[in-house]
Amino acid sequence: MEQNKLRWEVPIIIPSYEPDEKLPGLLRNLRDTGFQNIILVNDGSGEAYAHFFEEAKEVYGCVVLHHAVNQGKGRALKTAFNYCLREFCALPGVITADSDGQHSPECILACADELIAHPDCLILGCRCFEGKDVPARSEFGNKCTRIVMRYLTGITVSDTQTGLRGIPVSFMEELLMVKGERFEFETNMLLETKSRHIPILEVPIQTIYIEENKTSHFNPIKDSLKIYMIFGKFLFSSLSSSVVDLVLFSMLCFLMRDMRRGGITYITAATVFARILSALYNYLLNLKMVFQSDSPVKNTLPRYILLAVIQMSLSAFLVGRLYPLFGGAEVLVKIPVDILLFFLSFVIQREFVYANKR
């Protein structure tokens, strides 16, 4: 199939909930531009909005899929993915766009061309968030999520919230099984690219905000919860490991109080055994729950041990060097040093210790 013809046949998926007059305008422009396959999902908008979807079908020739009740953007996208996988399986993928007019036909076409040229990549139509016309809520939400995502997941994208995306067929099949029924699904989609080693390509697009984006239902905190949960689980893993270490130490001290082997006291023995067992607990928790790595233990465990030794040595070195500068207050020096190493350890574990095999 020739690329010039294929670009017009790539399905355009538009999820819509309680649309206004901007929807018919978008559909008209898409048809006038030349797009042939427009898939519109009515996400339980109700009878008051039925005329928009009737017009889409009768006037603009759209395929309209219906939800009886509002199920969220994520579910609407999955409904459309399932339809497209059955009806357009020979095409390279689909383009998703918002129904509020933020994405022009020219930008949608640019993403379709990029998808055809790179059928194994996730294509993101990325806006520029500089300028007086960008609503403060959108600018803050994107910048905040972008920074947090880069640190917590290692994924670097300039527009985490964009609804204009080119999704290849192979990835679309996998996304049907990904959790998330509402806006969080788009965040989860980005997270899946890392675990499945799917490259992300960005396409610069126009930054269009109508009525300061008042109709958007996106919440940058609530709908990015999965990103924050990664660090939350890491924090839980670390704190619970400390509790396990303390409990084991107490139990072992009680059991070994009258025991002595050479120059080894029961306190030393209890400390070593408790630390080994709590470290094993921490390692397994990070492997299975926090980073959900599929790398074998023979690779991850030596890396974890190496990191633990380096982190402990670095902590001792830095505290030893710095505490004389602060009047000999060892504890006050150790707290910020260990906090810094804690955040650094998170990144190293994510990118090195538990990095998924390719």
Automatic annotation (TrEMBL):
Gene3D superfamilies: Spore Coat Polysaccharide Biosynthesis Protein SpsA, Chain A. Pfam families: Glycos_transf_2, GtrA_DPMS_TM. One of its GO terms (cellular component) is membrane. One of its GO terms (molecular function) is transferase activity. The keyword Transcription does not apply. PANTHER family: DOLICHOL-PHOSPHATE MANNOSYLTRANSFERASE, GLYCOSYL TRANSFERASE. This is Glycosyltransferase.
